[in-house]
Amino acid sequence: MARPGVLLSSSGLRVGIAGRTFCRDLALTVQPGECLAILGRNGAGKSTLLSVLAGLRAPEAGEVLLDGASYAELGARASARIRGWLPQSRSEAFSSTVLETALVGRHPHLARWDWESAKDARIACQALAAVGLAELAQRDVQTLSGGERQRLSIATLLAQAPRLYLLDEPLAHLDLNHQIATLELFAARARDEAIACVMVLHEPGLAARFCTHALLLFGDGMTEQGPCQEVISSEWGCLESP
C-alpha cells in the first residue's frame, strides 16, 4: 500500500543473480528531502539492487512502488518524469554537442512529435552550469574527457528534473573536487527542493557527510539500514575492502 509522501518504496523485496541473494525481504522507503547511500563490498549487489529500484530489472520477489504505483502501472514516460536514472557508464555513439546531449533529458516532458522549446534549452543550460560545463555547450561530446562526460551525464539527468534521482556510482571518473561538488549539489537539492536521491557509493565517509540515510549490503542477503549516524561507524571502515 502506498504511503503519503513516499517517493520510492519496496516491500518483501528479494534481489539476486546467478544463485546469489543480495537482499531478502527488504522493506525500504525514500521520502522527499532524503539522500540514501547504498554501501557494500564489491560484488555485494549494489548496482543490481539499484537497477531493480529503477524498474529496469525484475526482483525475485516483492514489489517496488514509485510514487505509490508500480512501474508497469505508470509506464516508461510517466516513470521518467518522476525518477531519473544515472547508469555506471554511458557512451555517445554519435557526434552531438554538449547542449544537444543535455537536452535529451527533456524528452520525457515532450509530447510525441514535439521539439524542444526555448524553455527546455534554458533548463538544459542551467543544468550544464550546475556542473560547470556551460562554457563547453557547443563542444562535440566526442572530445570530452571521462570526467567531463560524467558531468554531462549528471547535467542531462538534472535537465530531466525528476523528483527522485537514482545514481549508480555518480562519482566515477571525477576528481576529488568534482566528487565533493556533485555530492553537495544533490544534497542541497534534496534539502532545498524536496527531491530525493538514492546513490551507490564506495566511501562510507562521504556517505556519512552528505547523505541522510544508508543501506548496507553484506553480500549474503543480510542488510542494515537507517540514518547515517546510526549505521555508519568506524566498524564499517573496511566495508569496501576487497
What does this entry look like structurally?
With about 240 residues, this protein is α/β, with parallel strands linked by helices. It has a domain of about 160 residues: Rossmann fold. The chain contains 9 helices and 9 strands. The strands form 2 sheets. It has a 6-stranded mixed β-sheet with strand order 5-6-7-3-8-9, with helices on both faces. Helix 5 crosses helix 6. The longest helix is centred in the C-terminal third of the chain and has 18 residues. The model has no long low-confidence stretch (mean pLDDT about 90). Keywords: ATP-binding, Cell membrane, Membrane, Nucleotide-binding, Translocase, Transport. It comes from Candidatus Accumulibacter affinis. This is ABC transporter ATP-binding protein. InterPro entries: AAA+_ATPase, ABC_transporter-like_ATP-bd, ABC_transporter-like_CS, P-loop_NTPase.
Question: What is the structure about, briefly put?
Answer:
By secondary structure, the chain is an alpha/beta fold. It has a domain at 8-95 and 162-236: 3-Layer(aba) Sandwich (Rossmann fold).
CATH-defined fold name of one domain:
Rossmann fold
Structural class: alpha/beta
The CATH level-2 architecture of one domain is identified as: 3-Layer(aba) Sandwich
**In CATH, what is the homologous superfamily of one domain?**
P-loop containing nucleotide triphosphate hydrolases
Q: Give the overall silhouette.
A: globular
| Main sheet strand line-up | 5-6-7-3-8-9
Secondary-structure element pattern, one letter each: EEEHEHHEHHHEHEHEEH
- CATH top-level class of one domain: Alpha Beta
Q: Low-confidence runs (pLDDT<50, min 5 residues)?
A: none
Beta-strand percentage?
Answer: 15-25%
How many angstroms does the end-to-end distance come to? Answer: 39 Å
Averaging pLDDT over every residue, what do you get?
92
Number of helices: 9
Protein name: ABC transporter ATP-binding protein
Function: Part of the ABC transporter complex HmuTUV involved in hemin import. Responsible for energy coupling to the transport system.
InterPro entries: AAA+_ATPase, ABC_transporter-like_ATP-bd, ABC_transporter-like_CS, P-loop_NTPase
Keywords: ATP-binding, Cell membrane, Membrane, Nucleotide-binding, Translocase, Transport
